[in-house]
Amino acid sequence: MNAVTRALRSEGGKGLIMVSPPLVYALLLLAAPLATIVLFSFWTQNFLDIDRTFTIANYAEALSDPLYRELMLRSLRISASVTAVTVILAFPVAYFISFHVAPERKSLWLFLITIPFWTSYLIRVFLWRVILAFDGPVNGSLMGLGIIDEPLTFILYNANAVIITLAHAFAPFAILPIFVSLEKIDRSLLEAARDLGESRTMTFLRVTLPLAMPGVLAAVLIVSIPTVGDYVTPRLVGGSGGTMIANMIYAQIFDLNDRPMGATLAVLAMAIVAMTLLWLIARIRFWLWLAEGRGVWIALAAGLAEILAIRAIFTLGPGILGTPGTVLGLLAIATLGSVLIFLRVPKGRAGI
Questions:
Q1: Do the beta carbons of residue 285 and residue 342 sit within 8 Å?
Q2: Residue range(s) defining the domain that contains residue 2
């Protein structure tokens, strides 16, 4: 008893006591539901009853059905597009606030950026639905100016509308981490680069951008992960061409009363997103390492070669291994390669 008391009074014991409540809270509200979903994915729906016999039939069906595969690929494409658009547009805003706004006014600018959060996310989606409508302000203005003769059909009820709406909704999530990284940059490094003869452009490319990469990477993760599983935006502005995997998960659980298949799609979506992001971060580290050591063109060639190889596997693999075997094999190879890169390739100047 005395040993336990001494252990609890030690620094480690005090730390354990402090983290125990949030740890229990996380286990109850995060780990337990996640474990339940994983368990459901290995069962089958038998009309109104759940057959608890262990099976992987749901996974085989989910990986082989072209509808599920197309929805998952579409979700990844939309998420990648939203992430690219959001981060590219957020970087100049964060750069302007960090380098060109007076220190006493930066808090005001950050406050203005967070104003959209004052309104419900659902209301913002409905507003974009009104703005992009066939008789909305965008089409009305363009037709009034004589730029177009009939309403644009590619900005509503398709993937483009989902990308526009999500890019606006997640813009603050991209601006803030990039701003934090830019604020941490020692301005004397930029002055030293200029004193050594670098132009403003090369100073930005060789000093500012690499040092801001941790914030850019954080923005990519913060934006890409939730957008893959977004449900509301595709439902309201996506139409049939903007339906994503979250909409199918909802349909399986609530409309078709097939909870095990919905759980299977949810587990696969989480696994594919995690492995894709792991692959992306690992390849960015590898390509930057190649660029620093062997030149930019070698890095570009390596990246292009790997993308072409992945495309060839997706094209030729199903005829040889079948669709489930191709997907699982590609994910396994990508994950193993990413782990090897993290273990063997050191972090570069960008801190990745």
A1: yes
A2: 1-40
Residues 269 and 192 in one domain: yes
For the record, the structure tokens of 208 come out as: 């500012």
Q: What is the largest CA-CA distance in the chain?
A: 85
Position 215 confidence tier, pLDDT thresholds 50, 70, 90:
very high
Query: In this structure, are residues 41 and 264 in contact, taking their beta carbons and an 8 Å threshold?
Result: yes
Which value, in Å, is the radius of gyration of the alpha carbons in the chain? 24
Encoded amino acid at 138, one letter: V
Q: Which of 125-134, 221-230, 343-352 is predicted least confidently? A: 343-352
Beta bridge pairs of residue 44: 51
Structure tokens given for 89? 């547009």
Question: Which residues face 49 on adjacent strands?
Answer: 46
Q: 230 with 244: CB under 8 angstroms?
A: yes
54 and 13 in a common domain:
no
Question: What is this structure's pTM?
Answer: 0.87
Q: CB-based contacts of 23: which residues, under 8 Å, 6+ apart?
A: none
| CATH number of the domain encompassing residue 258 | 1.10.3720.10
pLDDT of residue 77: 93
Q: pLDDT of 303-328, one tens digit each?
A: 888 888 888 887 887 777 777 777 77
d(CA 23, CA 301): 45
Question: What is the rounded distance in angstroms from the CA atom of residue 143 to the CA atom of residue 329?
Answer: 51
- Residue 333 structure tokens: 């190879």
Query: pLDDT tens, 162-212?
Result: 999 999 999 999 999 999 999 999 989 888 988 888 888 888 888 898 889
* Cβ-contact 340, 279 below 8 angstroms: no
